[in-house]
Amino acid sequence: MWNSQVIIMLLEGIRDTLYMTLASTLFGYIIGLPMGIVLTVTDKDGIRPNAAVYKVLDVISNLLRSIPFIILLIVLIPFTRFVVGRSYGSTAVPLTIAAAPYIARMVESSLKEVDAGVIEAARSMGASDFQIVTKVMLVEARTSLIVGATISLGTILGYSAMAGTVGGGGLGDIAIRYGYTRWQTDIMVVTVVLLVILFQIFQTIGMKIANRLDRRK
Q1: Residue 58 belongs to what H/E stretch?
Q2: Alpha-carbon distance 61 to 111, whole Å?
Q3: What is the C-alpha R_g of the chain?
């Protein structure tokens, strides 16, 4: 059972899982970070309130986050096929779309933790809105942002495993094809252990970075 082909398959599964998780998190932040900043800035208590902009982004974020990921995977099959030419394998498209609004809310939550007094002090010294966001809010919230990124990585890792139900590739796909469909319990157990190890690695690295950047220590 445990021949070289199985080992190679598991190694490829780890590689695909890492690719899907890290790539979708990166693209998720490319979309979600600006979205979270705009949500914070345009909120009624933000530095530039704008009810219309906030409402639109709020609805989009809540709508996408309210759809169970397994349903979103299926709904996005035509879009995924259009973007990358296929709807199966280790593609980060549906993961990115699922991650972006989640990340936006994490960023919004982190930025809202910044002391309003610090923002007012920066404004009183003549800082522009852009400077307040980039040099005050993002800097002051960096520890919380790193913690949020760590949590997001773990969540997206779980999503990547779920993508295996529709042929999404990675360890989740191996667990479904061999552990569930073919009742090979040993492979199922190994894939679960590997996912737990990856999760712990992400959490450990992320929390160490956050602790190192924490000014309160």
Answers
A1: helix 51-66
A2: 17
A3: 20
Token pair listed for 142: 């960096």
Place of tokens 């999760």: 199
Q: What is the pLDDT of residues 62-90, one digit of tens each?
A: 998 888 888 888 888 787 777 766 655 55
Between the alpha carbon of residue 5 and those of residues 12, 19, 34, 101, 204, the distances in Å are: 10, 21, 43, 39, 31
Burial letters 50-60, b for 16+ CB under 10 A, else e: eeeebeebbee
Query: How many other CB atoms are there within 10 angstroms of residue 16's CB atom?
Result: 23
pLDDT of residue 43: 94
Span 96-112, average pLDDT: 93
Separation between Cα atoms, residue 48 and residue 34, nearest integer Å: 15
Pick the closest to residue 24 from 67, 59, 69, 68 (CA basis): 69
